Amino acid sequence: MKLVLLSGGSGKRLWPLSNDARSKQFLKVLENEDQELVSMVQRVWGQISESGLEDSSYIATGKAQIEMMHNQIGPTVPLIIEPERRDTFPAIALTASYLYSVANVDLDEVIAILPVDPYVEGHFFYAVKQLEATIQKTQADLALIGVRPTYPSAKYGYIIPEREQADLNGVLRVSHFQEKPSEEAAAGLIEQQALWNCGVFSFKLGYLINILKEKGYPLQYDQLVEQYHELPKISFDYEVVEKTNNIVVVPYDGYWKDLGTWNTLTEEMGQNQIGRGTISEDSINTHLVNELEIPVTVLGVSNVVVAVSPDGILVTDKSASPRIKDFINYDQGPMFEEREWGWVRILDDERYEDGRTVITKRVAVKAGRNFSYLMHLNREEVWTVVKGEGEFVQNGVPMKVKAGNVLHIPMKTLHGLKAVTDMEMIVVHSGYSDEDKVMELYTTWSEMSEHCLNVSIR
């Protein structure tokens, strides 16, 4: 069996920590067994490894998430890259074409698709392992995992099993689905033994490949990438699952939760405060998450979330927090981005009437990591090193740099940097074009040392 995690979406319901560059699954707000802060994707990948599924697992993600994925779970995790964000049907179709034409997976192989951000106990993945045998024994076209509800929730979709069931060793035949009913309707569904739909699908690869053939989509990954923008923006549930008759579901009795909103996420956080600030003792069930160096004080306010990041500040009653998606429509790009080599935080973004732009950033580079050796065609930069030491190269000439050094990089000037220790810099870049063009020569420091004869690596 091949396991594929779907990592997409911007997670706007967890604004301001999540944005288009940093989705909710990358937020380090959960605790592991060592009380270290980890993200949802780090947590679930650790559970996959413990379950023995790591060597047969892939992650389907967008181009914008590649660096962050490598940074959080390592550069060796196999990724299936979406050229743009669409919906779960296009993502799963592209996944099937990749497994078929690039990974050469057999058409009889069972494929399991999971969201990347479920909050589950480790034995959930033993239920995932059952999907392969379930498909083989029942000859179903699709096998799902359904969570036994603990209360009548209006937030989740429901899987309703057939009333008359043959003996399938606990596996149930599926009658139909109900998307996010009212709480009253959900209570009635639970009486019919309905299950929460947790977004886990499994099928033989050949089943989905045949669907792609019927729809006239190319089966080769490279060709489907080129046509990806033409695929409908529709969920896999609507495009495939609800049009399939032969479906079974494996009931799961353990703990499961969707951490898509601040009220559900804070229920699983190990501490009430992350970052600088103070919460008064009479602030009951209140959480503070602060990514800035400015202290935040919360006094006498209960059942709220205060979240602070370079993208903005949120103060919300926990019960109202799911509504944030309806209010966030600010005309700004991501103000914080995590990169494979470090991170970038935008401090100021000025646009002038003559078309010139001046953007100020604080940039961190991890020890041993480096920028590519490149030149900017439409902007110049000034770097002020405020922390650490490194090696800087400009037009083939090397120099050591440390805190206090100021570096001027004119347009069309080749340059690169390697951090010897953890470094931070204030970077100011200016130019007359929003769309800066970059000419990159080398991505690794070893390539640069080999081809730039004037560079001496120490």
From TrEMBL:
GO process terms (BP): GDP-mannose biosynthetic process; polysaccharide metabolic process
An annotated Gene Ontology molecular function: mannose-1-phosphate guanylyltransferase (GTP) activity
Mannose-6-phosphate isomerase type II C-terminal domain ranges (all copies): 353-440
InterPro entries recorded: Man6P_isomerase-2_C, Mannose-6P_isomerase_type2, NTP_transferase_dom, Nucleotide-diphossugar_trans, RmlC-like_jellyroll, RmlC_Cupin_sf
One Pfam family, short name: MannoseP_isomer
Keywords assigned: Nucleotidyltransferase, Transferase
Residues annotated as domain Nucleotidyl transferase: 4-268
Protein name as catalogued: Mannose-1-phosphate guanylyltransferase
